[in-house]
Amino acid sequence: MPKVPDSTCSIARSLGVLGERWTLLVLRDAFLGATRFSQFRASLGIAPDVLTDRLATLVEYGIMRREPYQEPGARPRFGYHLTPAGRELHVVLTALQQWGDDHLPHPEGPSVLRRVTGTDRPVRVGFLDPDGREVQPEDVTLVMTSAYPASNEPPPAGTG
């Protein structure tokens, strides 16, 4: 099972949980309504042991929770449901989808469109300031804090 690295880098820690192959596709299917092991298996074609591992990791780190259910005449099983922390990943998955649509387009076009609920207005993932105004990516500056290790300093601007 992946472990969260002892790192000051939030991206490295997040990838310790989310970076395994299949994890983001399991989450994609959860956002599309899948909750049962069999639904994930049928949609993804993933090996059962791999799916078991991915779901266990997502539960362990509070991204999904297990809820028991039982079909009439069948043994009890568990469904997997997104937690509030899991639902926060919607914007991450949407950003990946948006990037793929823009930079790795399928010849037939996107398989899913992003729209404001109840309208046909398209939406895009972007940066917002505290007042809710959009900020262009080129206007966002990454500011290293005292938690950023000196050994990981980025190269000076214009040298990379």
Q: What key phrases describe this protein's structure?
A:
single chain, alpha+beta, two-stranded antiparallel ribbon, two-stranded antiparallel sheet, 6 helices, 4 strands, about 10% strand
Largest sheet: 2 strands, antiparallel
Structural class: alpha+beta
Strand content: 5-15%
Tell me the distance between the termini: 35 Å
Unreliable spans are none
Mean pLDDT over all positions: 92
Number of helices: 6
**Strands, total number:** 4
Apparent shape: globular
Rg over CA atoms, rounded to whole Å, is 19 Å
Percentage of residues assigned to helices: 25-40%
What's the order of the H and E elements? Answer: HHHHEEHHEE
- Give the strand order of the largest sheet, numbering strands 1, 2, ... along the chain: 1-2
Summarize the structure.
Helices cover 36% and strands 10% of the residues. By secondary structure, it is α+β, with helices and mostly antiparallel strands. The mean pLDDT is 92.
Structural features, described:
- This protein has 160 residues and is an alpha+beta fold.
- Helix content is 36%, strand content 10%.
- It has 6 helices and 4 strands, in the order ααααββααββ.
- It has helices at residues 10-18, 23-31, 37-44, 48-60, 84-87, 90-103; strands spanning 64-69, 77-82, 127-128, 134-135.
- Strands 1-2 form a two-stranded antiparallel ribbon.
- Strand 3 (127-128) and strand 4 form a beta hairpin.
- The model has no long low-confidence stretch (mean pLDDT 92).
